Automatic annotation (TrEMBL), chain A:
It comes from Gigaspora rosea. InterPro entries: FAD/NAD-bd_sf, GDP_dissociation_inhibitor, Rab_escort. GO terms for cellular component: cytosol; nucleus; Rab-protein geranylgeranyltransferase complex. The lineage of its organism: Eukaryota, Fungi, Fungi incertae sedis, Mucoromycota, Glomeromycotina. Belongs to the Rab GDI family. It is found in: Cytoplasm. Gene3D superfamilies: FAD/NAD(P)-binding domain, Guanine Nucleotide Dissociation Inhibitor, domain 1, Guanine Nucleotide Dissociation Inhibitor, domain 2. This is GDP dissociation inhibitor. One of its GO terms (molecular function) is GDP-dissociation inhibitor activity. Keywords: Cytoplasm, GTPase activation.
TrEMBL record, chain B:
The lineage of its organism: Eukaryota, Fungi, Fungi incertae sedis, Mucoromycota, Glomeromycotina. The keyword GTP-binding applies. Belongs to the small GTPase superfamily. Rab family. It comes from the Eukaryota. One of its GO terms (molecular function) is GTP binding. InterPro entries: P-loop_NTPase, Small_GTP-bd, Small_GTPase. This is Small GTPase superfamily. One of its GO terms (biological process) is regulation of vacuole fusion, non-autophagic. It comes from Gigaspora rosea.
């Protein structure tokens, strides 16, 4: 017999436990809203999740042929590897030791998300590793990219003259708003033009600045000077807080762990959780075009003032045509040795445009056992090189809804974007919260649970 | 011993809703009990410093925060646990019968390195109620514990503070032993924790 809900009226029902939905769940429950949080999957994280190997294979089957956020899904095992005969069996055996991010992202050491993790207390649930090495690919070789002052001095792949140019640019960019004269003639021009003309940076060094420091993800000619400087500055500001790294990556994967942290805050403040629980249909009043409730898998009718939903749970009529969708090509590859000689726990490798017949930069995040995302002697990357054991390719679409159709009391949480961080998604969660609960504080720290007077609310 | 640094032990308490998980940890840490049952709200984790074999350790006791009610505890909750407390209500037979599935669930989710020897402690709570209400005998509970590799068993009352201190002494001791072994087997440097203490470094940029 299914376990029914005793309470069928809530302030907010939330569908999906992805990153944005989970932040909202925590923030809403924290200020006393009653929250019911459902997910049709039997795991947290939705399209932001990290899966073990077995779950990953099951997931590829579940999305095959479904008209959702994914397309062109293909995977392959590479049985040619000498030492192991049955690769699928081996990977399935060690399945639990993989935590494979469906939309791999990093956390800048300074920025929206990390400040929220610290101020809300969710950071206490999490552990991180530094993404402390960056490589750039050109003409069949990988060069280590110098980022900090220390790096620039010890790097041997660039000449002394280039070191001076780079230092001059980085020093300026960290504090660029205080030297407007330096860039004012370039404000209308591309960031590339500023680097070439003003700082005489070109060749490999130019590519390194554009794609590994400013982390431009599109055609660099489309990025103007101010955008480029903002990106460079936020990168530089992130250095030095947790050692010589601008980014952190989550132990056991990122999106899923962070989402679960915010869900825990929601639960601590009374939110009700039901995984593996699907919804039959939403109830929308035709006259007022307002969401009134939903009918769940147990035929229970549940009502709420607001609905927060991942796009997965919306009727297709709410979606715009898929030509409006941003698409990211992703790959999850398991390899048997590091791509680079000294890669540490996690590293970033960028292939600038046109280096491997690519129009846009290709970014490879490599994780080793130190991040608890895979066993020893296995490395998960988002591109190939050494001996691959397994590779999964898929296209990840960021779907767009047509806002005129959507009832105003439905808040829609976006799919993961193509960026390498959670900054936009964090800002979006905060803005939705402010729209739903104007004037309320966004995820203030909880009372100290060890303070007995405040323990029982 | 390899390291003498500060030890943090993570202890999680599992069991059906209403067996007294939150009350028990509140009694142990805050010496406080509320008769009024509220499905857990506001309970995250409690910390307590304890001496184990002349060693000061910090025990972090994690509440399920109610996420167990519809079997929706995420894998993150189980990560890095050093001891798992399985709790039931001696006056509720069903809560005892589900211990098996709680134990299995823990082993699946946490997947400890050595599942045969992972430390569990079983607690039969609410022994303060009258004897006629009791549904699970001490003998039955102890037989179950013996069949699970001699799992330590305590009968407790969070309300009357009976056996609470003793139970947690055993929990802390077994958790410390587990943590010590884990450190021996781990080759990895410590992960980064972000909290306000970590803010002391100023941005140096370049």
């Amino acid at each position: 017999m299914p376990q029914l809900l005793e309470v069928t009226e809530y302030d907010v029902i939330i569908l999906g436990t992805g990153f944005i939905e989970s932040i909202l769940a925590g923030a809403l429950a924290r200020i006393g809203k009653s929250v019911l949080h459902l997910d049709a999957n039997n795991f947290y994280g939705g399209n932001w999740s990290s899966l073990n190997f077995k779950e990953l294979l099951e997931w590829t089957r579940s999305i095959q042929g479904v008209d959702g956020a994914y397309s062109t899904i293909e995977y392959e095992f590479y049985p040619i590897h000498e030492q192991v005969e049955d690769i699928p069996a081996m990977l399935l055996k060690e399945s639990k030791r993989y935590n494979l991010d469906l939309a791999p992202k990093m956390v800048p050491c300074r920025g929206e998300l990390i400040e929220l993790l610290i101020s809300s207390g969710v950071g206490r649930y999490l552990e991180f590793k530094a993404m402390d090495k960056t490589y750039i690919y050109s003409a069949d070789t990988f060069d280590k990219v110098p980022c900090s002052k220390e790096d620039v001095f010890t790097n041997q792949s660039i000449s002394l003259i280039e070191k001076r140019k780079l230092m001059r640019f980085l020093t300026f960019a960290l504090d660029y708003t205080n030297s407007p004269d330096t860039y004012k003639d370039y404000e209308e021009k591309s960031f590339t033009t500023l680097l070439i003309e003003k700082f005489k940076i070109d060749g490999k060094l130019l590519l390194a600045v554009l794609y590994t420091i400013a982390l431009i993800r599109t055609d660099a000619n489309d990025v103007n000077t101010i955008q480029g400087l903002e990106k460079t500055q936020s990168y530089l500001k992130s250095l030095g807080r947790y050692g010589n790294a601008a980014f952190l990556v989550g132990l056991y994967g990122c999106g899923n762990e962070i989402a679960q942290g915010f869900c825990r805050v929601c639960a601590v403040y009374g939110g009700i959780y039901m995984l593996d629980h699907s919804v039959k249909h939403l109830l929308i009043d035709e006259n007022s075009n307002k969401f009134t409730g939903l009918v769940d898998v147990n035929d229970q009718q549940i009502s709420s003032t607001f609905l927060v939903s991942s796009i997965d749970y919306l009727p297709p009529r709410f979606l715009k045509e898929d030509e409006h969708w941003e698409t990211t090509s992703r790959a999850i590859v398991i390899i048997d040795k590091f791509i680079h000689e000294e890669s540490g726990d996690a590293s970033l490798t960028v292939y600038p445009p046109e280096t491997v017949k690519n129009k846009y930069p290709v970014t490879v995040l490599q994780f080793s056992a130190g991040t608890q995302t895979c066993p020893e002697d296995r490395y998960t990357v988002s591109d190939t090189k050494p001996n691959p054991l397994f590779a999964l390719f898929y296209r990840h679409k960021k779907r767009v809804v047509s806002s005129s159709e959507i009832p105003e009391n439905i808040i829609i949480a976006s799919d993961p974007d193509s960026s390498l961080d959670f900054e936009e998604a964090t800002i979006q969660a905060r803005q939705y919260f402010e729209k739903m609960c104007p004037g309320e504080e966004f995820l203030p720290a909880g009372p100290d649970p060890d303070d007995e007077d405040e323990f029982i609310v | 011993m390899a390291s003498r640094k500060k030890v943090l032990l993570k202890v999680i308490i599992l069991g059906d809703s209403g067996v007294g998980k939150t009350s028990l940890m509140n009694q142990y840490v805050n010496k406080k009990f509320s008769n009024q049952y509220k499905a857990t709200i506001g309970a995250d984790f409690l910390t307590k410093e304890v001496m184990v074999d002349d060693r000061l350790v910090t025990m972090q006791i994690w509440d399920t925060a109610g996420q167990e009610r519809f079997q929706s505890l995420g894998v993150a909750f189980y990560r890095g646990a050093d001891c798992c407390v399985l709790m039931y209500d001696v006056n509720n037979a069903k809560s005892f019968e589900t211990l098996d599935s709680w134990r299995d669930e823990f082993l699946i989710q946490a997947s400890p390195r050595d599942s045969e020897n992972f430390p569990f402690v079983v607690l039969g709570n609410k022994i303060d109620l009258e004897e006629s209400k009791r549904m699970v005998s001490q003998k039955r509970a102890m037989t179950w514990c013996q069949s699970k590799g001699n799992t330590p068993y305590f009968e407790t009352s969070a309300k009357e503070a009976i056996n609470v201190e003793q139970a947690f002494q055993t929990i802390a001791k077994n958790a410390l032993q587990q943590e010590t072994e884990d450190i021996l087997y781990s080759d990895f440097p410590d992960p980064i924790k972000i909290d306000s203490d970590a803010n002391k470094y100023e941005a140096c940029g370049c």
